[in-house]
Amino acid sequence: MTAPAEEGPPARSGDVAPDGGERLQKVLARAGLGSRRACEELIDEGRVRVNGEVATLGRRVDPEHDRVTVDGVTLPVRPGLVYYLLNKPAKVVTTAHDPQGRATVVDLVPDEPRVFPVGRLDWDTEGLLLLTNDGELAHGLTHPSRGVPKTYLAEVAGVPGKAALRRLRDGVDLEDGRTAPARARLTQTTPTGAALEIVIHEGRNRQVRRMCEAVGHPVRRLVRTRFGPLRDHSLAPGEWRPLKSAEIQALYAAVGAQSADTEEENDA
Ligand code: URA
């Protein structure tokens, strides 16, 4: 993936950290790529690059500044990066500081190191929210051209028929333009309403609520059940947990894969 200019390390090639740095296999193992032996094999197979150059065994790196990729996917090797998955309850604002003094999502996770929410859920929306201090990953995940899929459970008024579902899937005309193709399926009906599973790739303000309203089925309750590769049915509202290494790598891969797709689309 391409790093945003303000976040990426300086473009240096083949240099060694001034203090000698850390052994590459140790840094890879810490990032969750397996045992040091397994990481040596990755290096030996030519799958690991440092600042764009294929690394060889014996390579040392400065995790603060060097960019390490495995199979083209950037690894979070900088020390001090944290990643929390929060099940946001309703009536909490998705911001680091609310001028009106309302409870914020940042109040629900540890104070230090300071983290920020990736993307936004409305005050009354519940569900999975990522908080991190990894600016590069956050940038990739929220960049409009790489929108990762976000899955919502929307409890709506009335039961959407085939035509309404087709409109949700094909694109709904909203005041800020037509929505991109989405997935939408009916999962449950009740005497007065229905539950829909909706998957969108965009991240417009109150998008799912506006889409449902536009097709005549206002949302009564909205819960995000998946964010890219992240899912968790066991977190109670207000609870959080640190991401596992495999989940962090899956997020980096999602951003990398999406950006590759976009480049292919652009080339077509
Ligand atoms: N769409 C909405 O309408 N609200 C959210 O919080 C997220 C997506």
- Cα-atom radius of gyration: 21 Å
Q: Pairing-aware structural class of the strands and helices? A: alpha+beta
The name CATH uses for the topology of the largest domain is Alpha-Beta Plaits
Number of strands: 17
Largest sheet: 9 strands, mixed
The number of distinct structural domains comes to 3
Question: Percent range for helical residues?
Answer: 10-25%
Shape: elongated
Gap between N and C termini: 19 Å
Report the portion of residues in β strands. 25-35%
Mean of residue pLDDT values? 87
- By CATH, the superfamily of the largest domain comes out as Pseudouridine synthase I, catalytic domain, N-terminal subdomain
The secondary-structure element order is: EHHEEEEEEEEHEHEEEEHEEEH
CATH architecture heading of the largest domain: 2-Layer Sandwich
The CATH class name of the largest domain reads Alpha Beta
pLDDT < 50 stretches: 1-17, 258-268
- Give the helix tally: 6
The unique ligands bound to this protein are: uracil
Write the layout of secondary structure elements.
Blueprint: E1 22-23, H1 24-30, H2 36-44, E2 48-50, E3 53-54, E4 60-61, E5 68-70, E6 73-74, E7 83-88, E8 116-117, E9 126-132, H3 135-142, E10 150-157, H4 162-170, E11 173-174, E12 177-178, E13 183-189, E14 193-200, H5 207-214, E15 219-227, E16 230-231, E17 240-242, H6 245-267
Parallel strand pairs: 9-15
Antiparallel strand pairs: 1-4, 2-3, 2-5, 5-6, 7-9, 7-17, 8-9, 10-14, 10-15, 11-12, 13-14, 15-16
Helix pairs in contact: 1-2
Bound molecules: uracil.
